Amino acid sequence: MQTKPIKNASKKKILDTLLKAEHITLTGHTHPDADSIGSCLAIHYLLKNYKKKSIVISANSMPKDLKYMLGIEDVHFDFKIADITKKDVLVVLDSGDMNRIGEISKIANEYNQVLFIDHHKPHNLENVTMRYVDQTASATAEIVADIFSADLKSINSKIATILYTAISSDTGGFAYPNTTRKTLNIASKILERNVDLLALGRVVKKRYDEDSLKVLVNIYKKVVICEDKRVGYICVGEKILGIPISDSGISISECVMCMESVVIGFIIRENEKTFRVSLRSRCEKDIRGVAEKYNGGGHPKAAGFEVSKKDYTKTSIINSVYENIIKLLHE
After folding, report:
1. % helix / strand / coil in the chain, to the nearest 5?
2. Are 329 and 262 in contact (CB under 8 A)?
């Protein structure tokens, strides 16, 4: 476990390290989203402009809602550690925690350098040798664009579309409160690089097939609105009606938070060994503090954590999270 605090490196230092590397491995958090994958892909293609070799990997299978993202065919999903033969520089993007990158965390110490680039509050930085964290950034893709901003001409239409898609996704189409003036300035510069708006729409605009619609209807049936009406939650397994939720492309958090009275929601995903809990807030309260009580983290409006079934039952984790949310609401 990292014991000494790591100070932010400069953007120039990060860029210089990447350009001096012989081979770069790029990865993000497990169960990736558009910002995580998009940030990896953007750097991957930017490095190609400098004749650098890189590979984008993900510990999970491809999420259905990212299947139309530009460049997705260049991501190595469900990778095996044995497949990674060149360990020079590892770049971890949008994870918030080295424990959230899957199996590759076990071999991070075999790399010459481990770069950590993020807009989350960092927790475990084990084996990280250099970091660049900006919690004011709306998305990790915003940071990536900022790092390479000195060479804006290297951002072609494909890279611009990937970056714009990632930032748009993490800001809810620039409607979430994490959107800043800097976000819009960077997005505007990216837009000038000929963003493919049709390709953008295929990712950020949700479209559902028949099976996904069945899952969506069932999710709404499972949402529980608590007595005070301000808190809502849902508990789900890995499948609904025999259909893997991960294949549906449905955002369960959006289903919970679309309820008019709900200002804080939580989603519990149950698997064989753990409960993964996602927290969302659309009020002034900082939900990250609740996640940190369970050694999790995230943002003021979106956070999460994972606990073992050895420590909690479904009922006890629901009650525990609900009690902590109620305390937060009364502070």
Report:
1. 40, 20, 40
2. no
Between 82 and 117, residue with greater pLDDT: 117
Overall size of the chain counted in residues: 331
For 264, the enclosing helix (H) or strand (E) is: strand 264-270
Q: Which amino acid is at 248?
A: S
250 in any annotated domain: yes
Report the alpha-carbon distance of residue 20 to residue 51 in Å, rounded: 11
> Average pLDDT for residues 194-219, to the nearest whole number?
86
Q: Identify the domain containing residue 263 by its residue range.
A: 210-329
Q: Give the chain's mean pLDDT.
A: 91
The pLDDT of residue 306 is above 60: yes
At residue 4, the pLDDT reads 53
Q: Summarize the confidence of residues 143-155 as an average pLDDT.
A: 88
Token pair for residue 152? 């804006």
Examine the fold and report which residue of 153, 188, 204 is the final residue of a domain before the chain moves on.
204
> Residue written as tokens 């930032």?
167
| Across 226-235, average pLDDT | 90
Coil, strand or helix at 26 = strand
DSSP letters, 187-212, are HHHHHTTT--HHHHHHHHS----HHH
pLDDT tens profile 18-62: 999 999 999 999 989 999 999 999 999 999 999 999 999 999 989
Report how far residue 253's alpha carbon sits from residue 257's, in angstroms, rounded to the nearest whole number: 6
Q: Which two tokens stand for residue 180?
A: 């800043």
- Say how far apart CA 256 and CA 35 lie, in whole Å: 21
Token pair of 102, please?
Answer: 């899957």
| Statement to judge: residues 168 and 274 lie in one domain | no
C-alpha gyration radius of the chain: 20
